[in-house]
Amino acid sequence: MLYSRIRLSDGEERQVARVIMGTTQFGTRLDRDQVFRLLDQYWQAGGNAIDTARVYGSWIPGHEDDSPSERAVGEWIRSRGVEKEVFLITKGGHPPLRDMKHGRLGRQDVFHDLEKSMDALGVGKIDLYYLHRDDTSLPAEEIMDTLFEAQKTFPVKALGASNWRAKRIQEANRYADTKGKAGFTASEIRWSYVDYSQAHDDPTLVTMDQAEYEQYKNMDLAVMAYSSQGNGLFQKGFKADLSDASERYRAMVTPENIRRYQALLDRCQRTGATPDQVVIRYIVDNPDIRAFSLVGCSNVEQLARSLDAVKA
Description:
The protein contains 9 helices and 10 strands. By secondary structure, it is of the alpha/beta class. The chain has one domain: NADP-dependent oxidoreductase domain (TIM Barrel, Alpha-Beta Barrel), CATH 3.20.20.100.
């Protein structure tokens, strides 16, 4: 397993697996036994970082406010007695699903989500807490003051920004410096060997494009790539021109993705690498950015292929 450092707010640094377990389907589509098998397999392979969120699973009827993913993750952590060793990541401040343009980063919302997450997880600390979306109607200074106050109340070890533009992160961290505080130490952004530049699915998502990339190169951040495997587009065994891609992927069949896919197939043929290795290594071997790949696997076979890609 490959590892890299993440700095906590008190200056301590933790070594964190470069492949991070994503948990979007935990507690809903994946039941307790499936969750425990996946997390046991990940842990035994040397993985130590789990990424969840208060909103995960809340779109499933009957789970609107019970944080099913966080509950599943917390149960596993407690049952295995690994609370001190695990690097636990969760997120809050997500807009209401019925109105994604409505920000939820005021003090009341942030404190409410943190309290709910701590209850659902049932553990004594959160290593990295992300704001799941930005709210550009609020000054970055106001948001950071809310987070600094929250760290006095809740056991949050480090702060992160998910789906924030690099410029906003820089603005927030400049303010933190003026207060003598640690700002955002990590960012989550949609980033993959699969090109998402033509994706128009959710305007609140931020994708790693060239402009963002150039800014991140000069920022000392841990950058966690979600959707890092491109929803499996390049691992499904489609034809080289992606002409047989299933309906789920049709919007991703672009000239750029066809070009990238053909380059991937050529590399696999020349080197013996697997598509999983090429896609994941594209993130974790990045020469400019301290990058981590979030993987959301639904079975042990998928997880095994992902972990094989980063054997040290």
